[in-house]
Amino acid sequence: MLKKIVIPLLLISPLFAEIDWFGYYEGEGDIGKIPTKGIFYGYNKLRLDLDTNPSENIRISANVIYREYYGQTNLNFIDFIHPGYWPIYPNTDQSGFDTLSYVPYTLSDSLFIDNMFMQFHHRFFDLTLGKQQIATGVGYAWNPTDIFNLKDLMDPTYENTGISAIALSIPIGTRTTLSGILQPENSWSETIQYCQLKTGIGQFDISALYSRSLLTLTRLFGPTAQTHDLYGFNLEGEIFNVGVRTEIATHRLDYSDKLNYEYIIGLDYTFKNSLYILTEYYHNDLGAKSSRTLFDDYMVYYSGERKSLNQNYLFTLVMYPLGNLLDFSAFGIINLDDKSVVFAPQLMYRIFENVELSILGSWFIGEKSDEYGYQQYGFRFRIRAYF
Amino acid sequence: MKRFIGLSLILINFLSAADPSGPELLDKIIDLMNPQNAKGIMEQTIVTTTGDHRTFKYETYMGNHGESSLMRYLEPSRVKGNAMLMTDYSDNIWMYNRRSNRVRKLASSAKNQKFEGSDFTYEDMGSGDSWRTDYKPILKGIEKIDHEKCYKLELQSTFDNNSYTKMICFVRMSDFFPIQIDYYDENNVFTKSLYLENIQSIEGILTPMKMTMRNHLDKTETVMTYLSITYNVEFDKYFFTERNLKK
Hints:
The structure holds 2 protein chains of 2 kinds.
Chain A: H1 2-12, E1 20-34, E2 37-55, E3 58-71, E4 74-76, E5 88-90, E6 97-99, E7 104-106, E8 110-121, E9 126-132, E10 163-171, E11 177-183, E12 192-201, E13 204-217, E14 224-239, E15 242-253, E16 259-270, E17 276-284, H2 295-302, E18 312-321, E19 326-335, E20 340-352, E21 355-365, E22 377-386
Chain B: H1 2-8, H2 22-33, E1 38-47, E2 53-63, E3 68-75, E4 83-87, E5 92-97, E6 102-106, H3 122-126, H4 131-134, E7 135-145, E8 148-157, E9 166-172, E10 178-184, E11 190-202, E12 205-215, E13 220-230, H5 242-245
Antiparallel strand pairs in B: 1-2, 1-13, 2-3, 3-4, 4-5, 5-6, 7-8, 8-9, 9-10, 10-11, 11-12, 12-13
């Protein structure tokens, strides 16, 4: 339905205004080492954006992405998990059990419309229709109150895939906004409903939110679905010049009386010598206790249906500019439950006006059965050229 | 030439009763440099230590005598559409990333950081009126800068958290417009100078069409040039808000 509205508008928009074309090419190569093998794959990605304002109050924007993979594109999901977690199942003649050792994971070339939306700005409201970027939450590494997006912990600022939704925002004063988002699905019970009241008090931005969705969890022997109510609170501001970011999400599943809590507490500070430090503590009641982690927990986590494998984590990032064009950064993620760690330093060089080059290394430290202990190391090379 | 410039910088240091006091002079500077409202397009060129040039172009809006400002990038493609909102004289800073549609509030500790890798800090871009409370103005005398007789006004920091321990403004005696500001860091080291050049009267308001910030320690400089500017503009109460930042 949304496409039926937006596509004709895109087609006729040149009649009203100039279309702004831009985008980028991104090339990436990834090398990794796990106990059983080395892995190499990469992709070439082209993102082409168009943006136009047919009138002062209307913006139409869309982008198409083509991504082509190379290298080892047929992967085995099981390869990334310690054999101790591999599931067993009854063999065909019921004479015993076999261990599941192959779950295919294929990196497929794709061409798709990532975002395609129309924004209408009225004096009393802003309305966005179509596939759009929805960014909720104030955390850097985790966003417990964001039910729309999946974040890659190894690359938390990477752009998200567009969400097909209707978003309405009503300003109430200069720093207070009431927002509502609907992500239509097959039925009303599956449709994601989200509303948020956000306001500013002094140097703090505060928001309260509620959402209802259907939480589907991928399991080895079939998915399960539960009604998911989320009551959330976000705070972003500063105390004594230290940035403070907090998100609290209270989950209620299938109308149960039992509430599950998920939250972050984050601090950040920039020193006068330009050294920037950010740290976030994350807790998730829905994560598995480290001693009770199962293969299904990995499935749910890697499917993005849960934001963590276990319950307690610490993320720390440091950044330091090495001149005008070169930035050094490094982050560490600690699973506080099993004490495993991933450490990842990165160099980012703005090699030309519109070209960025980044190199990221990652080292995994811990027992083989720990979350970050099984993989050994990895490198990521990425170049992005904007036009 | 060097000898000539040197001669022109000889301290004249005579002040008369008719000369304004330090606070009066600072009030005049702030009033002149922060008109009610402004809207323009600026080009910013960063010259790095290796001589590389990086050029940005952005729309800039200023309201309520510099209390609020909004900048939206037009070029290069890498940052096109990204925007920054500052309110309360840069006490509140929000950054908007257009590709992710995410707004992030910066802590005050980020104010002294380089703005997009330039030699300007966020604080340089939006401090405006806060000089009145954050610095103590002392008139130090009169000097000649490039043939112009100038008041030498020293602004001494009154708070430990200020990015600079002092600033020295050279203010034209003819119209009280500053043409050079020298910055001293927290260790009282002379770090950079801002040169305000090609000062024109636009709609009756003196406007430096070119501003060059030269970092004497890093040997870098950033040149900001107005490509267009107007002061005949009104903003509604929602203009300097997060809502407009995301438009």
